[in-house]
Amino acid sequence: MRPSGRAADEMRQVEMIPGYAKHAEGSCFVKFGDTHVLVTATFEQKAPPWLRDTGKGWVTAEYGMLPRSTHSRMSREAARGNQTGRTQEIQRLIGRAMRAIVDLTALGERQIRIDCDVIQADGGTRTASISGAYVALKQCCDWLYNEGFIERHPLTDTIAAVSCGIFEGQAVLDLDYDEDSAASTDANFVLTGSGGIVEIQGTAEEEAFSEEEFLRLLRLARIGCTEIGKTQKQVIG
């Protein structure tokens, strides 16, 4: 029995509120159970310097956790003067995930910045961020197209992410903190709506996991990402 009482293939309740931030070109307040993340997408008229005269744009991301998003207060990274390796790794993951479904040529020499701020953490903050980032990105791209900044829509697919793991010998979907902190294997899957695999992060915390267990986790991830995709479609189309 999982601590939450969920079935092995059962997600936490997923909620997405698009347009949550008044001033951003795209935004989404996403909840995976008790993990809550505010995501915004900001349009910038120029691309990074290394893309000058290439005709291509860019999508990048930043990620952060508020001081009391966890059980005890953490210092703001800005106050410390540097980001942790975890923060850098997660925001690069979010950026790669978004670029995987964007035609950068259609975007032109422009940039979209995705900001993911974790308000409350209970496991799966990076996967909630990616899933919410798609909604914010879609809003921003719709706005760019409708306002005439771009001639064709740059999104080529949908994308979602979910965690899976081996908890007490069982493959389970969408780990919360109680499971994540005790799982013998922890993995994050980033999948497109058409079934493509963008990224898989998998780690054995104790003994190595088998190929059979990996395939079970992948099957669970497909179930979870399909469910997330349905929520995305309901809120943004």
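(ticket continues) Second input and output from the same batch:
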Amino acid sequence: MKIVFVRHGEPDKTYVDEKGFIGMGRDMAPLTELGIAQAKEASRSPLLQGCQIIVASPYTRALYTAAILSKNANLDILVEIDLHEFLPDKTFQVKGEEENSNLHKEFIKCRGEYPQGETKKWETISEIIKRTKPVMDKYYDLGYEKIVVVAHGGVIRRYAGIDVIAYGEVLEVEYNKEFQCFGWV
């Protein structure tokens, strides 16, 4: 099965910061004008030709991107909760961009896995793979030949093996159930 990954467009966290949203409430941020343009550009990618469905993360920035792709590629959208972004705090209590950034820096310093004998607040790369791979397997088992997955950099890295993935970037990966996800890249 071919998976065409699309990273969501650039999010605008101004409103969620102003309102003081915490945890997953911060993931209700819409796209910026640039993010909308990035999604529109992604919807013109020739890699989308032949895709049968769009599978999207439940976060607003991904759903907004998927909606633009859906409109322009005439594809239905299915939402998969387990395609959400890396969790900087598994207790869902991140209170702002500064705390989020500090937790992400710790994740990077540890290269995505807890040091031996330690537990942190953030989700590990192994946990990201464990929750997302069954989603990909599901569509493989359903017999899809080519799907679009609108997700986040932290998810897409596990399948593309690329460190830097731009907002609105479109990447194609050949997937089967024996696929080996990437750890730290």
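Agent notes: The first helix runs from residue 14 to 19. The radius of gyration is 16 Å. Closing as not reproducible unless the customer responds.
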